[in-house]
Design brief:
Blueprint: H1 3-15, E1 21-24, H2 27-38, E2 42-47, E3 52-55, H3 72-79, E4 84-89, E5 95-99, H4 105-112, H5 124-135, E6 142-148, E7 151-157, H6 168-181, E8 186-194, E9 198-204, H7 211-219, E10 229-237, E11 245-253, E12 256-266, H8 274-280, H9 284-297, H10 306-316, H11 321-332, H12 341-357, H13 362-371, H14 380-386
Antiparallel strand pairs: 1-8, 2-6, 3-4, 4-5, 6-7, 8-9, 9-10, 10-11, 11-12
Length: 394
């Protein structure tokens, strides 16, 4: 067996597990891994009322006999995670019986139109019964069931204008084609894939995207190292319905990425296609420049209580306490007279760096990074309201 076949078989074995993740700094490796990951993807349409959930624990050994032998490893992995299986019939009257991946949990509850903490306290058998009773109520509702690497990864809404299938590989191909069309040169920084998200970053190694920003830094006498500062973008998407297909803007300084917000986005809804994503990419750098205008505006907003302002924003954004305090203490060591809203924004980026250094889940760090650019939209009135002594701390 060739070395390539051995490597492919090894990664396929890992992909069948719920805790699969892959990180790389090699673009070819990342694209190849995405292709392997989606190679056997299947989307099956059916009726919500035809879904039946069953437990994989608390039922003795009789259940295992109902799965083919080659499912032993995925069944055993599921027993350590969501502990549920699913059977359903698609629109071609083909019946499936598969283990459920942890990623399917939210969509299972969404299709049943139920939520609440009490569900977590039910046994797997009790939860299965509750879900099945709810599904029977929706005989007119369709579902789109996503099967990936021998598990059901999501039970999505299947109406014509609901979840749109946007394969990760085709999205990446479209992004790379767009890069080739542009005069800028893009360099792959890193990529991350798990069963929830696909993320990858690129820095722009030439071009004039940051010229106006650098002029603003010079005008405000803010020091920076032009050799270490690059424009950067991040692609992100999800096949299980928890993220749109988007490109986000960043300023990269060494290993620090300061988020500027979403540059372009295509939701997995409304009948959207890969062509819609390609169309959205045309506005990618217009949005980048708009975000830089918002960022440079902060350089003219003087603050009297910058540390208190930063603390309030961390609380407002619900950033993790330990990583926020560490960043606030660092900011406090140099903040003083003349400190601006821009200084606060840059300091808030340190919280994200701390989260990455603490090996936070990629999904959480992504959410924190997406929330930070909301600060760019604060009005002068909102900044004045924040710029008061803190009444309470953590």
């Amino acid at each position: 067996m060739s070395q390539n076949n051995v490597s492919t078989n090894l990664i396929l074995t890992e992909m069948r597990k719920d805790n699969f993740s892959h990180f790389t700094t090699d673009c070819r490796d990342f694209v190849d891994t995405i292709e392997i990951y989606e190679n056997l993807d299947k989307y099956a349409r059916g009726k919500v009322s035809d879904i039946e959930i069953f437990p994989l624990v608390g039922v003795g050994d009789t259940l295992n006999a109902n799965f083919p032998a080659h499912y032993d490893d995925v069944v055993n992995d599921t027993k350590e995670n969501l502990q549920l299986g699913i059977s359903f019939t698609d629109e071609d009257c083909f019946t499936y019986k598969l283990p459920l991946r942890e990623t399917a949990k939210k969509s299972l509850l969404d299709r049943a139109k139920i939520s609440g903490a009490s569900l977590e306290r039910l046994s797997r058998s009790q939860l299965s019964s509750v879900l099945n009773m709810c599904y029977k109520l929706y005989s007119n509702s369709s579902t789109l069931i996503y099967v990936n690497n021998d598990k059901v990864a999501a039970v999505l809404s299947g109406d014509s204008k609901d979840f749109s299938i946007l394969p990760l590989r085709k999205l990446l191909e479209s992004l790379h084609e767009k890069f080739d069309e542009l005069s800028f040169r893009f360099q792959f920084v890193d990529g991350y894939l798990d069963h929830y998200y696909c993320l990858c970053k690129y820095e722009i190694v030439d071009g004039d995207l940051l010229d106006s920003y650098k002029k603003a830094l010079d005008a405000h006498k803010i020091p920076y190292d032009a050799r270490r500062m690059k424009a950067a973008v991040q692609f992100s998407s999800s096949n299980v319905g928890i993220s749109t297909a988007k490109v986000s803007s960043f300023i990269k300084t060494d290993n620090h990425f300061l988020p500027l917000g979403t540059a372009c986005s295509t939701p997995h809804r409304g009948g959207k296609t890969i062509d819609d994503f390609k169309e959205s990419l045309k506005g990618m750098f217009g949005s980048y420049q708009e975000a830089l205008v918002d960022l440079t505006r902060l350089m003219d907003i003087q603050l009297n209580h910058p540390v208190d302002v930063m603390t309030k924003i961390c609380q407002k954004l619900k950033y993790p306490k330990a990583q926020s305090i560490e960043a606030i203490q660092l900011f406090e060591s140099y903040a003083g007279n003349g400190t601006t809203a821009y200084d606060v924004y840059v300091a808030l980026g340190e919280v994200l760096f701390n989260c990455s250094a603490a090996n936070f889940e990629k999904a959480k760090t992504l959410i924190y990074a997406e929330d930070l650019p909301k600060v760019l939209g604060f009005s002068d009135k909102e900044w004045r309201k924040l710029d008061t002594p803190l009444q309470f701390s953590w």
